[in-house]
Design goal:
This protein has five helices and no strands. It is mainly α. The longest helix is centred in the last third of the chain and has 34 residues. The model has no long low-confidence stretch (mean pLDDT 89).
Length: 111
């Protein structure tokens, strides 16, 4: 499970790096999640990531990082399911209207 958590961490880093280099990719990704009920698939993915990170935290060198990421993923999954697609679409539209510079700054969080 630790290897899976490390691979997810590398994936998050790589995606954030791509977003920082080319912010238009973020807008394309947001467009993908806005279609139909795909947002719920994102909620399920976040829930799985949360469970993996929280279960693997005790086996890692710095468990607090895995716990924080796990809790953030859990909060995101809960928000997706509790807020529903209508409210989330407004949030996605907010980010679609941001400048490339603002999106690059946000990508630093993942890095």
């Amino acid at each position: 499970m630790v290897i899976l958590v490390k691979l997810i961490g590398i994936l998050i880093f790589a995606i954030s790096l791509i977003y920082g280099i080319k912010p238009s990719v973020i807008k394309g990704m947001i467009g993908f999640w806005k279609k139909g009920k795909r947002i719920y698939a994102g909620g399920v993915i976040n829930l799985i990531i949360a469970i993996l990170f929280l279960l693997a935290a005790s086996d890692l060198r710095m468990p607090w990082i895995a716990i924080v990421i796990g809790l953030l993923s859990l909060a995101k999954a809960l928000a997706i399911f509790l807020l529903g697609p209508d409210k989330l679409m407004k949030s996605m539209d907010f980010w679609l209207n941001k400048s490339d510079f603002a999106l690059r700054m946000i990508s630093l969080i993942g890095i």
